[in-house]
Structure formats: structure tokens, C-alpha cells
Amino acid sequence: MTENGDVTPLVKLEHVDKHFGALHVLRDINLTVSRGEVLVVIGPSGSGKSTLCRAMNRLETIDSGQIIFDGQPLPAEGKALARLRSEVGMVFQSFNLFAHKTIRENVTLGPVKVRKVAKDAADRRAMELLERVGIAAQADKYPAQLSGGQQQRVAIARALAMDPKMILFDEPTSALDPEMVQEVLDVMVGLARDGMTMVVVTHEMGFARKAANRVVFMADGQIVEENTPDEFFTNAQTDRARDFLSKILTH
Amino acid sequence: MDELITYGPELAQGFLENIKLALVGLVVSFILGTILVAMRVSPTPVLRAAGTAYVNVVRNTPLTLVLAFSALGLSDQLGLVFSDQPETNSFWLVGLGLGAYTAAFVCEALRAGINTVPMGQAEASRAIGLTFFQTLTMIILPQAFRAVIAPLGSVVIAMIKNTTVATAGGLLTDSAATMKIVFDTTGASIPIFLGVIAAFMVLILPIGYFTGWLSRKLAVVR
Ligand SMILES: Nc1ncnc2c1ncn2[C@@H]1O[C@H](COP(=O)(O)OP(=O)(O)O)[C@@H](O)[C@H]1O
Ligand SMILES: [Mg+2]
């Protein structure tokens, strides 16, 4: 799991709390993500999974506790925060490709503007990545011309183009037509095999079993259960987890 | 009809001055309007408040006052002088005033455009490490601008018509002098009115068609 021998966790959340007004969405969250680990976060809608994910690159601020990324507390703002975000990729449920830019531009924008990579080098790398996710032929199209599954694969390429230390996936397949789910999961499984550190909010059990090292079950802003995928899906410890699993298994 | 032919060249000269004024107003208002909208959506409360105050004050002040202040107040009271030539000086001052006034409307049109851009666009931009300013200028504003090309066209059209306020107020000195001479000699001549209306139509109608076409062509498909 630790190809460079660095055993410090990549991310460490300590006593993290977060409110939206009166709503307590994250309650005393303690969690570590090791380098190269694939962590699946699962739980009912509204349990705080997205908020947890977004807190890790500070798209959401937290009220108390702390989040350590690669040995440093998350910066609060400015250049340091932008730099942190460039090291943490994010893939959204609704893809969020830049609608006015071509697929190629979507992938090169970050490297060119944030990393100051030369345009032609960024272009070459973008084509490699698009090749890898199977979209190279569409490089000069606009996002709206692609299917949902293709757009999500481009979003993954866009994240990869920054050479991130970790990628956060917030329900990457939930907005997709069923026939497109697998093509996105296949790309993600490939990333996991290559050793990418990933935090994945998903209910795709097949993916969790195939690629995850650990499953975290959340309910009402708390981490209720943490286990290996096999243990979690066959032998959940808590009633809430069993109840939740029975619901997602029946359909 | 004779009056129109007699005074045609002079009227055209004055009209040309209105067009020049509109061009200055266009450049000033788009630059200032973009800065204002950036202030209005910025995370800094002071900038937001300043942008809002500017828009509210300017939008609720009669244009005549804004222009009279630009032409008279700025140079006489504040000593803002662009040129030794009084006509040139007042032209630039009025152009600046017209631009400053129109900027408030450009700002509000752009702000409506920003509201059409989904939140996820800004989040994805921040998530790859682009700063607030980069996100605004590379992701949000280009999409916002394309969404409001037609309304911006209306703002420009209103501004072109507003150049006549400067003429009528006697602030655009050459056009105003022409108008005075023409009316003093001919009285209120119907052909001259019709001629001037036709000139404005020729200028303005294509702008409406062009911006309509451009907004369809550049529309961001989601
Ligand atoms: N920006 C926000 N403002 C107010 N409430 C929010 C906001 N974002 C999420 N919430 C609320 O916080 C709770 C947790 O949301 P979320 O983290 O999105 O849950 P999940 O991803 O597990 O469905 C939900 O009740 C949701 O309605
Ligand atoms: Mg969610």
C-alpha cells in the first residue's frame, strides 16, 4: 500500500464537527486514509457523505476539529488553499465539466493555469489521459455533445491531469443511465489497481468489493461502522447498517 | 425635404459625434461593468458593498444629472482635464459619464448571467486549484457573458439613444450647436426629425439583430 515507504496517513480527520445552521451534519468524525488506500463511504441520503468528502478539499469549511493532509493542516484560504486543492482531485455526481470549453481544454486548463505546464506538454498529457479513459476521439467536442458516462470519464481525466495525491469521488455514477455505470467504474477500478488514493462515496457494492480496502458506513453525520468490504456486506455489526443494506440489496 | 438636404452634412457631422460618444461609452461601460460585477460577487464584503452602492446610486440618478456633472462638475470642481480644447475635453468627460452610468446596467446584466451558471462550474474550477479570480475570469464570466448577449445588446441600444441626452443638454458641443442652428433656422422640421430617426434606426436595428444572432451562436449548451 505504501510504495514509497511513507507510512504516515495521507489524510487524518480528528474530531471534525460541522453544522449547517441548526443541522449537525458531521459529528466528531475521526478517520484516516492511508496512502494508496481506496476508501468507500456508504450511507443513507443526507447522512453527511458529500459534506465529509467536500471538507477534505475545503469546499466546505468545518466548525471544529482538524483535517491533516500529507502532514499539514488544510490551509484556510488563498494560494496555499488553491495549491492543496490542486493536489486533491474531485469528481462530482453531476460531472461539472466546463461547459464552454472543449474536452481537451477541460483537461489542460488546470495544468496550464495552476501548474504552469507548457501548453503543448499539457496537450500531449491530456491526450494520453483521454486515451486511457477511452475518450481521445472526442477531444475537440464540447461536454454537452458527450454521454453522461463519457463526461464522467473526462472528469476523471481532468482530475488525473493535476497528478493529484488523492481523488475524491462523490457518487460518481449516481447521475448516470444504468448502461453507463460500468464504463466509469472500470476506469475507477483501473485507478485503484494503479495505487491511486481514493475516497469514493458510492452504493456500488460491486466496486466496493472489487476495489475498496475499507468501507465506512455513515448515518446522521456519524461514522457508525468501519470494516473491510467483505465483512461489511456479509456481516454488518450494527442494526442501522444491516437495515440500510437490506434496503439497497432489495432493488 | 429641402431642409434635410441642406443641413444633411452638418447633421451627419453631429450624428457622427454621437456615434463616437457611444463608442467611448461602450468601452468604458463594459470594462467598468465587468469590474463592478466582479466586486459584487467577490468574497470580500467591502468590495461587495461598494459595488452594490455604486449600482444603486447610479441606476437611480437621472442620466441628465450624471452627464451634467461629468461635463461641468468633473472639470470645473475636480479639475479633471483631458485636453486644452474645450470641445475635446467635454467630449471625453461626457463619454466617461455615459460609460460610468451605463456600467451599472452592464453590471446587472452580467450578474443575471452569472446566476445562469450552475454552482458546480465554480466548484469544479476551485477543485482543480484555480483561484477565485481565475475562476471568475476563465469559467464564470465567459459563460455569464454568453448567456446575456441579447440583454447586453439592449443596454448598448439604450446607451446609443442616451447619447442624444448629451446633445439635447448641450453637452456634446458640436452636435448641440448643429441642432440649435438647424432648429433656429428651420423651426421644428418634420423631415429633419424623420431623417434623424432614420439614422438612428439604421444604426440600432442591426445591433439588435446582430446580438440576437450572436447570442444564439455562442449559447453554452448544457
Ligand atoms: N449548503 C448546505 N446548506 C444547508 N444544508 C446543507 C447544505 N449541504 C448539505 N446540507 C444538508 O446537510 C445534510 C448532509 O448532506 P450531505 O453531506 O449532502 O449528505 P449525503 O451526501 O450523505 O446525502 C443534509 O441534511 C443536507 O440537506
Ligand atoms: Mg451526497
From TrEMBL, chain A:
Membrane topology category: Peripheral membrane protein
Enzyme class: hydrolase
UniProt cross-references to InterPro entries, sorted A to Z: AAA+_ATPase, ABC_ATPase_HisP-typ, ABC_transporter-like_ATP-bd, ABC_transporter-like_CS, MetN_ABC_transporter-like, P-loop_NTPase
Main location: membrane
EC number: 3.6.3.-
GO molecular function, one term: ATP binding
Domain ABC transporter positions: 11-245
Localisation: Cell membrane
Keyword check for Plastid: no
Matching PANTHER family: AMINO ACID IMPORT ATP-BINDING PROTEIN, GLUTAMATE_ASPARTATE IMPORT ATP-BINDING PROTEIN GLTL
Name listed for the protein in its UniProt record: Glutamate transport system ATP-binding protein
Source organism per UniProt: Nonomuraea roseoviolacea subsp. carminata
UniProtKB/TrEMBL annotation, chain B:
Superkingdom field: Bacteria
Keyword Membrane listed: yes
PROSITE patterns assigned to the protein according to its UniProt record, in alphabetical order: ABC_TM1
UniProt KW keywords: Amino-acid transport, Cell membrane, Membrane, Transmembrane, Transmembrane helix, Transport
Keyword Membrane: yes
Entry membrane topology: Multi-pass membrane protein
Coiled coil: none
InterPro entries: AA_ABC_transptr_permease_3TM (IPR010065), ArtM/GltK/GlnP/TcyL/YhdX-like (IPR043429), MetI-like (IPR000515), MetI-like_sf (IPR035906)
CDD domains linked to this entry: TM_PBP2
Compartment(s): Cell membrane
TM helices/strands, residue ranges: 21-41, 61-82, 91-112, 124-141, 192-214
Domain ABC transmembrane type-1: start-end pairs: 15-209
PANTHER family documented for this protein: AMINO-ACID ABC TRANSPORTER PERMEASE PROTEIN YHDX-RELATED, MEMBRANE COMPONENT OF AMINO ACID ABC TRANSPORTER
Similarity section: Belongs to the binding-protein-dependent transport system permease family. HisMQ subfamily.
Protein name: Glutamate transport system permease protein
